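Researcher: Sequence recovery benchmark, item below. Answer with residues only.
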């Protein structure tokens, strides 16, 4: 709320001046002016306003959020203007400290310089230059002592490390040097509440971009490190719990976790970014199936879900779907993803009945056709194909699922296969026995043939003899 009051003050100042007096300053120049002069002086650029308005804007633009008037008090401008903000005197060094091409004359400017160029800042921190400057030029020995703790806690990294220790050292140094500064990580500066919107804005950025650095900050538990240095215990605990929840979501394996899940979880009104429903503006879970029904006719691929869609569904916490989201992962075979997607979408149709889904059913039935080859019985396979076509025409995903996942029919098909194999085995055994006995039968046949031939010959001789005797 205090940040909203500050933003309202900047808007009111621009309206009062009729222009943005700071427009000719770049971001770095404006920040240095705000740190050295205060936000009101830096933004008004010396333009005089009426005393009442000047006092009101000075209070709204107080650099310390705790000194800004609450919204209720703004309804009484005179009372809000009377709420004086006390700007702490800035201790200026005898000589500046150069950090990445920027001259720091005080602790807050040094914090900004380290946040702006953390690599240069870490080199000076580890080399002892910051400690010497704080003690000798700024007369801030107590601050130098506080900076010794993160230096001990995050020693110089060895080869192969990912730079996490340097990033955490820079983060803690900035927070110690300027307690009013936001969380600073690898060149980014934001409050923990802004991580979600930042992830949404920079989704799909290239390697090394804002989204990747934000994910690195969450993985390194940077929010907890920042929270540990906040002066308000309640705020620190809230930030610590927020950081822990973000890290837990990031560490979830498969399509239902990771950066995409975190992005949707932190942005409840973020539309699903899946190309499968591109342009449909799917914000609420119940809008997903109708969008897929519309897109089904144009989708040629056998898969009607992807990692973005699964992350969106997982983040929306739909009742009874958690276990159905677990199987989805990059290393899952396409055939298994096809089965998993049918189970998920069928359950979603039950949980959020959007009516019949004939086009989506037809697409899922086509994707499931290869699975029918698992049925060995031609009769069963033909019956399943007919049932599949009927369920698809009805637009009932649960009926489609029942056709494909029929335990009783599968058991009967398996029993039939076993019986067929047993019968084939018996036939093979009989054929083998016949083949093994063939030589013996052939020998017996040959002996019988010779005996028959000999008998026939004797019969012929006997007939001839009788004919000669009685002829």
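Model:
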């Amino acid at each position: 709320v205090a940040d909203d009051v500050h933003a309202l003050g900047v808007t009111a100042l621009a309206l009062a001046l009729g222009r943005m007096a700071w427009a000719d300053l770049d971001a770095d120049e404006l920040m240095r002016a705000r740190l050295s002069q205060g936000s009101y002086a830096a933004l008004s650029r010396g333009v005089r306003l009426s005393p009442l308005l000047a006092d009101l804007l000075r209070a709204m633009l107080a650099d310390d959020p705790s000194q800004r008037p609450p919204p209720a008090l703004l309804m009484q401008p005179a009372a809000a203007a009377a709420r004086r903000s006390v700007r702490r005197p800035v201790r200026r060094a005898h000589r500046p400290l150069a950090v990445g091409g920027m001259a720091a004359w005080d602790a807050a400017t040094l914090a900004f310089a380290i946040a702006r160029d953390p690599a240069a800042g870490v080199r000076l921190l580890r080399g002892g230059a910051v400690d010497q400057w704080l003690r000798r030029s700024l007369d801030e020995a107590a601050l130098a002592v506080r900076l010794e703790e993160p230096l001990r806690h995050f020693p110089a990294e060895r080869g192969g490390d990912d730079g996490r220790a340097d990033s955490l050292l820079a983060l803690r140094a900035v927070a110690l040097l300027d307690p009013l500064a936001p969380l600073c990580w690898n060149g980014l500066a934001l409050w923990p509440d802004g991580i979600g919107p930042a992830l949404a804005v920079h989704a799909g950025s290239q390697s090394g971009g804002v989204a990747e650095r934000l994910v690195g900050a969450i993985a390194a538990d940077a929010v907890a490190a920042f929270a540990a240095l906040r002066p308000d215990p309640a705020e620190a605990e809230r930030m610590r719990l927020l950081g822990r929840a973000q890290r837990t979501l990031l560490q979830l394996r498969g399509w239902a976790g990771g950066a995409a899940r975190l992005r949707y979880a932190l942005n409840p009104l973020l539309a699903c970014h899946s190309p499968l429903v591109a342009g449909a503006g799917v914000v609420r879970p119940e809008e997903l199936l109708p969008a897929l029904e519309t897109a089904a006719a144009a989708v040629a691929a056998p898969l009607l879900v992807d990692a973005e869609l699964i992350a969106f569904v997982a983040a929306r916490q739909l009742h009874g779907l958690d276990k159905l989201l677990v199987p989805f992962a990059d290393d899952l075979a396409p055939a298994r993803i096809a089965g998993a997607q049918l189970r998920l979408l069928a359950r979603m149709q039950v949980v959020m009945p959007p009516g019949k889904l004939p086009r989506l059913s037809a697409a899922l039935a086509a994707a499931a056709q290869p699975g029918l080859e698992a049925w060995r019985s031609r009769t069963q396979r033909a019956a399943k194909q007919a049932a599949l076509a009927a369920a698809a025409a009805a637009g009932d995903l649960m009926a489609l699922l029942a056709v494909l996942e029929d335990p009783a029919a599968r058991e009967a098909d398996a029993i039939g296969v076993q019986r067929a194999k047993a019968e084939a085995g018996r036939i093979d055994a009989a054929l083998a026995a016949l083949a093994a006995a063939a030589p013996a039968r052939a020998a017996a046949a040959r002996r019988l043939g010779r005996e028959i031939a000999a008998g026939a010959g004797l019969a012929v001789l006997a007939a001839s003899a009788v004919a000669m005797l009685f002829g």
